[in-house]
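Lab notebook, bench 4. We co-purified these components, and the gel suggests they stay together. Before we commit to crystallization screens, I want a quick structural picture of the whole thing.
Request: model the full complex, all chains together.
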Amino acid sequence: MNNPLTNIVQDWIQPLSNVIDFGCGDGSLLQELREHKQTIGYGIEIDPEGIVSCLKKNIPVIEKNIDDGIDEFSECSFDVAIMASSIQCLKEPNVALDKILNLSDKCIVTIPNLGYWRCRLALLLGRMPVTPSLPSSWYGTENIHLCTIKDFEDLCIKEGFIIEDSVHLNKERSKSGFAAIAPNLLSSEGVYLLARK
Amino acid sequence: MKSHRELHTFSSGIILESGEALSSFDLMVDTYGELNSNKSNAILVCHAFSGSHHAAGKNDDGKSGWWDELIGPNKAIDTNKFFIVSPNNLGSCFGSTGPISICPETNELYGKSFPAITVLDWVNSQEMLLSKLEITSWACVLGGSLGGMQALQWAITFPEKIKRAGVIAAAAKASSQNIALNEVSRESIRKDINFHGGDYLKNNTFPKSGLKAARMLAHITYLSEENMDKRFGRKIQDIESRVDELVDYEVENYLQYKGEKFSQVFDANTYILMTRAMDDFDPAKNFNNELKAALKKVTAKLLIVGFKSDWLFPPERGKEIQLAAMQSGVSSSYLELDGQQGHDSFLFSNERYQKNIEAFLSS
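Here is the predicted assembly.
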């Protein structure tokens, strides 16, 4: 089990759900969900190696750059959409979330937290933060819309997304009760279960 | 690679989609590799409109099969693992019953009287071949272009007899532009003075120049602009090696050469029949024009492949199939490859193409 989200996400997904994973990587999360929750899952991926891995695992996968828009899926319908570690890479993350919640009842989204104390400290010391949740150097990162936990939760209120559940992760990207005390300062990453009002 | 060529006769005949019947027909069939003991490794490959049963390996004349880059030991469609069945389509002119065959009722050449053939007719005849080979189901049906249309039709018509379908560089129906281009080809054949309304063989002649012009036009649609520019640019043809004194540019010489070669081996009535089959393909037509309804009963896993430089059946056409399949709850993947050779890209292997086909067949 190499995907830290597997355990968290499983609790939020009903058996036999219809799942779409935007940025599914090698398909391991969808594979775990298929094994444990008998889900029917589709992956969207742009990385050629990820696509081959999905096909090998018998995970249906669509080669696509999510940044080109997801309008083509508007007539599809899913129980849960997963958007792990890629929302901050999109041109218009708020629009993307809105569209996802049009085609899926629920959306699981992860947000690397720029408000994490290690990030704040790095900036205080005059450096761009590099953490397990934000692993790339400033010139190598694909992230163009970084935010803090507070910023993200504000956006949810503004856009009318209900936060049905959330989990906050520590530096090792595992669920942490400590991080949940003051997530904007103590968590490296937030994982949210969103629905529409 | 173990290979075998055999003419299979189906003396029970076939009733065609048009309502017409053939009282008996033959299919020329190549096989590559070996059928395993539980008969679970059979793959049907379907050829595009000018193809033949000769998909892999070299013929006696040294010519390679049309999908030799993909079929063979350790290739994308690995003959060490799979038993590949490659028939020449009904209505074609490479050994299977078609316009240049003798009609058993009249003892004359079919010629223009050969009935219209559809993609569904091919699939039905291939299903008879499956039974004759005593195989329960295909591990996969694969094809490019018109061959991809057959793979899609297979998944729709015989869901219990196909585990996977590879629909490559194809579309769920021909576009208006596709039909228009085919019509120009047909027109050039029909207006050849030697066509005789399709009865050219009875008149001991052949509409060679019409067929050649048809192929020259069609060949352009198989290439990409970028690829043609790279290969020929505006280079002037060397006078010594030109095939015709009318030729100025290298690209003209190439098309003349290709058209000439094609017109020596292909039949004009077959050309018309094959292009009609492509034009008429539209599995959604019986489902209120909703492709997703047509795909509802599909149980095969689908892999749809499009090529970026293909403008005959561009990637969008493949995406449409995948999307409709997804909406119908059919397990389906979509792959978009970089192939530079336009529509013909499906014929040429590259690392990504091979890896993904292998992965799909192994899953």
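The first helix of chain B runs from residue 119 to 132. Worth comparing against the SEC data before the next meeting. Chain B has two domains: 3-173+283-362, 178-275.
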